[in-house]
TrEMBL record, chain A:
<keyword id="KW-0375">Hydrogen ion transport</keyword>
<dbReference type="InterPro" id="IPR023632">
    <property type="entry name" value="ATP_synth_F1_gsu_CS"/>
</dbReference>
<dbReference type="InterPro" id="IPR000131">
    <property type="entry name" value="ATP_synth_F1_gsu"/>
</dbReference>
<keyword id="KW-0999">Mitochondrion inner membrane</keyword>
<dbReference type="Pfam" id="PF00231">
    <property type="entry name" value="ATP-synt"/>
</dbReference>
<keyword id="KW-0066">ATP synthesis</keyword>
<feature type="compositionally biased region" description="Polar residues">
    <location>
        <begin position="70"/>
        <end position="84"/>
    </location>
</feature>
<keyword id="KW-0406">Ion transport</keyword>
<keyword id="KW-0813">Transport</keyword>
TrEMBL record, chain B:
<dbReference type="InterPro" id="IPR006721">
    <property type="entry name" value="ATP_synth_F1_esu_mt"/>
</dbReference>
<dbReference type="GO" id="GO:0045259">
    <property type="term" value="C:proton-transporting ATP synthase complex"/>
</dbReference>
<dbReference type="InterPro" id="IPR036742">
    <property type="entry name" value="ATP_synth_F1_esu_sf_mt"/>
</dbReference>
<protein>
    <submittedName>
        <fullName>Ubiquinol-cytochrome c reductase core subunit 1</fullName>
    </submittedName>
</protein>
<dbReference type="GO" id="GO:0046933">
    <property type="term" value="F:proton-transporting ATP synthase activity, rotational mechanism"/>
</dbReference>
<comment type="similarity">
    <text>Belongs to the eukaryotic ATPase epsilon family.</text>
</comment>
<dbReference type="Pfam" id="PF04627">
    <property type="entry name" value="ATP-synt_Eps"/>
</dbReference>
<dbReference type="GO" id="GO:0042776">
    <property type="term" value="P:proton motive force-driven mitochondrial ATP synthesis"/>
</dbReference>
<dbReference type="GO" id="GO:0005743">
    <property type="term" value="C:mitochondrial inner membrane"/>
</dbReference>
């Protein structure tokens, strides 16, 4: 308060123009105070954000261990189911005019870095190589939102509600059922999911789910002595197995990606907090120094 | 080989799911609760036609409805 009162007196002594200066100084000072308060407010909000991201990281970490366990079991399960086709040397049929169905396994939730966009990019690359050869079935809202913008005509089915918890086999079965009920006949079904390489890196890969003709046409198929009637069952079951595998692995990737993303976010928030703390202290000191200068100059002016 | 469930319009996966549910329900209480959580499914789905999203429906109900339709169609 004193400085504001003292300054006009000092300025009046030195300069002739009183009006503009008196008008300018309070504005300047209140601006100083405002920035100080502004910085304080931002500091507070960044601290809150850090708290939130830290909590999300912890949640993701605990979910990750469960997801990884589910992934490991489902992976061996899916691989065992695929051994049949490896032994039979099943190859996808190259049939003209039939489309390939792409099943994209993402999830509903975001805040986990670029793993959904990575998958979308992979799908788009496939689609640009052979346009109009593919139809899409999308599991999860995130990839749906991205792909419905670029390829709305190619979508056949979308599923939502996945990603709350570790995917169950019932989920995979229900999706497989709905896919096998699709009216169109597909040359083959490709399931796209994020493969878990390690905690830092994932890669969009495909597993093949073959059509009945492709299974029947495979070279070593006779060795299994499967009757034709149950072939449809095998196909449906294999589709559910592969889907389960893909969903579980994608879920583990997502949790691990979310953990990393939240870790980075907390780190960045910490950096910002230190930066803003330093700025806050500097500004506070500057304001105090300014006030002192004003007081002293005012005092010396009124003395002299 | 004709299966009774095939004639009823049930797919193999549905058949498995029903069988699994029966096994889960016959477990003892403590094990049953953990096992039944593995059988939960709460998905919604939507059909797309010509770039337009159709109505969002509950997947379990839709599956049952389509199977009933398949059964009556035969």
């Amino acid at each position: 308060m004193l400085s504001r009162a003292a300054r006009p007196a000092f300025k009046a002594g030195s300069a002739l123009t009183i009006r503009p200066v008196t008008a300018a100084t309070p504005a300047l000072q209140s601006a100083n105070y405002a920035t100080l308060r502004e910085i304080e407010g931002r500091l507070k909000s960044i601290r809150n954000i850090e708290k939130i991201t830290k909590t999300m990281k912890i949640v993701a970490s605990t979910k990750l261990t469960r997801a990884q366990r589910a992934m490991n079991t489902s992976r061996s399960y899916g691989q065992t189911s695929n051994t049949v086709f490896e032994e039979a040397e099943t190859k996808p049929l190259e049939s003209e005019g039939k489309k390939t169905l792409l099943v994209v396994c993402s999830s509903d939730k975001g805040l986990c870095g670029g793993i959904h966009s990575g998958m979308t990019r992979y799908v788009r690359r496939l689609m640009t190589e052979h346009p109009s050869d593919y139809q899409l079935v999308i599991v999860g809202e995130k990839c749906k939102a991205q792909l419905s913008r670029s390829n709305p005509k190619d979508l056949a089915l979308t599923f939502a509600g996945i990603g709350k918890d570790v995917p169950t086999f019932a989920d995979a079965q229900a999706i497989a059922d709905q896919i096998s009920l699709l009216p169109e006949d597909y040359a083959s079904i490709k399931i796209i999911y994020n493969k878990f390489l390690n905690a830092q890196s994932y890669e969009a890969v495909t597993v093949e789910a073959f059509s009945e003709e492709a299974i029947a046409a495979s070279p070593n198929f006779a060795a299994f002595e499967i009757e034709d009637e149950v072939l449809a069952n095998l196909r449906e079951y294999a589709l559910a197995n592969s889907l389960y595998w893909a969903l579980a692995e994608g879920h583990a990737c997502e949790q691990s990606a979310r953990r990393n993303a939240m870790d980075n976010a907390s780190k960045n928030a910490g950096d910002m907090i230190t930066r803003f703390q330093i700025l806050f202290n500097r500004t506070r000191q500057a304001v105090i120094t300014n006030e002192l200068v004003d007081i002293i100059t005012g005092a010396s002016a009124s003395e002299g | 080989m004709a299966f009774a469930w095939k004639a009823a319009g049930i797919t193999y996966n549905r058949y498995l799911a029903v069988a699994a549910r029966v096994v889960r329900r016959s477990l003892k209480d403590d094990k049953r609760l953990a096992a039944e959580r593995r059988g939960e499914m709460d998905l919604r789905f939507a059909k797309w036609e010509n770039g337009k999203q159709g109505e969002s429906k509950n997947l379990a109900e839709a599956n049952e409805a389509s199977m009933q339709q398949a059964a009556s169609g035969q």
